[in-house]
Write a structure and sequence with these properties.
With about 550 residues, the chain is mainly beta. Helices cover about 10% and strands about 35% of the residues.
Length: about 550
C-alpha cells in the first residue's frame, strides 16, 4: 500500500516538473501511460446574417468570469466570447495569404505577466500576417523597443482611463457580469495621398474602442491608420486593402477560442485511456442558466461617423451617442457547437478526440438577444462563492471508440469510475510557475519619442488589482509617442489635437454611448485605472503608462 502511494506521488511530482512523465509503475510494469495534455478548441455560436451595409463597426456584451477554478499560470491560455473584425474583402487575395483584423477581447494569454483568475481585456489588432500586433497603447509583439512591432499602433484617446501594457484590468472578483465593448471608426485624421514618403494612400478610419462598463463609458483608444498601411509601403499591391480605408465585414464569427486548459491523460493496465481536465467553470444565474453573450449590434456610417465628420468640418456638435437609424441588432439562433478536444505532442492533429460537452450543455434556452446555455446531468456541480455562483464542468473523461471509429470521443465519467492506478485523482493544476514577472519599461533615452517633446506632467503611480504598479505621465494628445510614430506631420497632428479637444469638451464619461444592455449587471474595470487629469489639463491631454512592474 505504502509503496503504491509513493509511486503515485513520484508520478505526480514528475508530471508537475516536466509536463510529460513516465511513472515508476510504468517503468516496472509497462502498463501505465501518463501524459500532459491540453484542452483546446472553439465554442461556436449561431447568428443571423445581416445586410453587408452594416460595415462601420459593432458592439457586444460579453460575460466576464474566472474560467478555471485555480489559476494555473502561464501554461493557461483562453479567450472568453469575442469576435474577429476583418476588412471587407476586395480583389482576389485569400485570407490565408492576407490576414489582418481586430480580435483580442477578454481572456488570459501566455505572455501576460500579471495574470489573475479575473480576465483582462486587450485590443488585439493584427498587422499583415502577424508581423506585428497592438494590444493597447504601448503594447505590441515582444518587448524590443529597438524593433517595435505594433507598440505604437494604438493611440490613447480618453483622458480618464489608464491602459496598462499587460492588458486592461477588470475589477477583481468579477463573476458573470457583462462587459460592453465595440469598435467604430472616427475621422480623427484626413485621408493622405502619400505614406512614409511613397505614393501609397492612407485612409482616415481611426477604429476606436468604445467601452460600456459599470464605472466607465465611452471611447478609450484607437488604431492609427499607419498601423495598417505600413505593410502597403513595403508591398504596394496591398494598397487600399486594410481597415484604414476598407469597411469592416458586417458578418463576423462570435466564438470562444481556447488554446490551453491544462489536463492529464493516463492509460490503465487494460489499455483504457482516461483524462482529467483542470476544473473549468461558467457563471451561473439565479435561473440556473449561464448568460454568455448579449446584444450584438452592427452599425453603418449613420450610427456615428456622419455626424462626427460634419462636426469636425464646422457643423453642429455630435454627442457621440449611437444613432439608432444606423444600427441593427443581430439575432442569435439556438444552438452552440463545440470542437473542444484533448491534444498533446503524442496525438497527431487529425487524431484529436472531441470532448462530449454538448451532452451536458443545452443551448435551447438561447433567445434572439442573449446567448445562454443550461448545464445538465449528475456530473455537473454548482456552488456559490463570495464572487458569485458558478457551475463546474465534469473533470474526468473516458476515451470511447465504437465500431470503425479509430479516434473516439471523450465521454464524461464520475471520479469513482476512473481507476486509481491512473493517479489522475491526485493530479493538481495549480500555478507552478516560479518566474518573477518581467516589468514593462519604455525607453529612457532623452532623445526618444517618450522624452522629446515629452510629457507635460508626472510621474504618477497607482497600484492595480493584479498586484502590479503602473507609472504614468500626462502628455499633450498630439505629443504622445504613438502619434509621433504614425507618419504624421506636425500640422496633421495639430489638426488631430483640435478635433480631440472637441471630443474631450463634449463627450463626458458618465453617459451611454453604446446601446445599453437589456439584462444583467455591468462589469467594472479596475477602479485604480480611473484617473482625473491634473488641473489645467482637463482638455487635450491623455495619460500614458511608461512602466508596469512589482513594487
Amino acid at each position: 500500500m505504502k509503496k503504491n502511494i509513493l509511486k503515485q506521488l513520484l508520478a505526480i511530482i514528475l508530471f508537475n516538473m516536466s509536463g510529460h512523465f513516465v511513472s515508476a509503475q510504468e517503468k516496472a510494469a509497462g502498463d501505465e501511460r501518463f501524459r500532459k495534455v491540453n484542452v483546446g478548441g472553439y465554442m461556436i455560436t449561431k447568428v443571423e446574417k445581416v445586410d453587408t451595409s452594416y460595415n462601420a463597426g459593432y458592439s457586444m456584451y460579453a460575460a466576464a468570469w474566472p474560467l478555471v477554478k485555480e489559476y494555473p499560470g502561464r501554461s493557461f491560455q483562453s479567450g472568453l466570447f469575442g469576435t474577429w473584425m476583418f476588412p471587407q474583402n476586395k480583389g482576389p487575395l485569400k485570407r490565408k495569404d492576407f490576414y489582418t483584423d481586430v480580435e483580442g477581447g477578454l481572456g488570459w494569454w501566455n505572455d501576460t505577466e500579471y495574470a489573475t483568475e479575473t480576465p483582462k481585456f486587450i485590443m488585439g489588432g493584427v498587422q499583415l500576417n502577424f508581423v506585428g500586433w497592438a494590444n493597447g497603447p504601448g503594447a505590441g509583439q515582444g518587448r524590443d523597443w529597438n524593433d517595435p512591432k505594433g507598440h505604437y499602433g494604438v493611440a490613447q484617446l480618453s483622458p480618464w482611463v489608464l491602459w496598462p501594457p499587460d492588458g486592461l484590468n477588470l475589477k477583481q472578483g468579477t463573476c458573470g457580469e457583462l462587459f460592453g465593448s465595440g469598435y467604430l471608426p472616427l475621422p480623427l485624421t484626413d485621408p493622405k495621398s502619400t505614406t512614409a514618403g511613397k505614393d501609397i494612400p492612407s485612409g482616415n478610419q481611426c477604429w476606436t474602442l468604445f467601452l460600456n462598463s459599470g464605472n466607465f463609458k465611452g471611447p478609450v483608444a484607437f488604431f492609427t491608420p499607419y498601423f495598417w498601411t505600413k505593410a502597403s509601403v513595403d508591398d504596394p499591391k496591398l494598397s487600399g486593402l486594410f481597415l484604414d480605408q476598407r469597411p469592416s465585414q458586417a458578418n463576423k464569427a462570435f466564438q470562444m477560442e481556447t488554446q490551453h486548459i491544462r489536463s492529464a491523460e493516463a492509460t490503465d493496465s487494460k489499455g483504457q485511456t482516461y483524462a482529467r481536465i483542470a476544473a473549468t467553470q461558467y457563471p451561473l444565474g439565479s435561473d440556473g442558466n449561464s448568460e454568455l453573450l448579449h446584444r450584438l449590434m452592427v452599425y453603418n456610417r449613420k450610427a456615428l461617423w456622419d455626424k462626427v465628420e460634419a462636426w469636425f468640418k464646422g457643423g453642429a456638435p455630435a454627442d457621440g451617442i449611437i444613432d439608432p437609424a444606423g444600427a441593427y441588432m443581430q439575432k442569435f439562433q439556438k444552438g452552440v457547437r463545440s470542437n473542444w478536444s484533448l491534444y498533446g505532442d503524442h496525438i497527431p492533429k487529425d487524431k484529436r478526440a472531441l470532448l462530449n460537452i454538448t451532452s451536458y450543455m443545452d443551448a435551447n434556452v438561447t433567445d434572439s438577444v442573449t446567448l445562454r446555455v443550461r448545464w445538465e446531468g449528475d456530473l455537473i456541480t454548482r456552488r456559490k462563492t463570495n464572487k458569485g455562483s458558478v457551475v463546474t464542468l465534469p473533470e474526468y473523461y473516458k476515451l470511447v471508440k465504437t465500431g470503425n471509429d479509430t479516434i473516439g470521443k471523450w465521454i464524461a465519467v464520475a471520479p469513482k469510475d476512473v481507476p486509481t492506478v491512473t493517479g489522475l485523482q491526485n493530479v493538481t493544476f495549480n500555478n507552478t510557475d516560479p518566474r518573477t514577472p518581467v516589468a514593462y519599461v519604455t525607453p529612457h533615452d532623452k532623445g526618444s519619442c517618450w522624452k522629446t517633446p515629452g510629457p507635460a506632467a508626472g510621474p504618477f503611480k497607482t497600484k492595480l488589482g493584479d498586484g502590479s504598479t503602473v507609472t504614468y505621465y500626462w502628455y499633450r494628445f498630439a505629443d504622445q509617442p504613438a502619434l509621433l510614430n504614425a507618419d504624421l506631420s506636425k500640422e496633421e497632428r495639430e489638426e488631430m489635437q483640435r478635433r480631440v479637444e472637441l471630443l474631450h469638451r463634449n463627450w463626458t464619461k458618465n453617459r451611454e454611448y453604446l446601446p445599453a444592455p437589456m439584462i444583467g449587471k455591468l462589469a467594472e474595470i479596475d477602479q485604480a485605472l480611473i484617473v482625473t487629469p491634473p488641473k489645467g489639463m482637463e482638455v487635450g491631454y491623455v495619460p500614458i503608462v511608461s512602466q508596469q512592474g512589482i513594487e
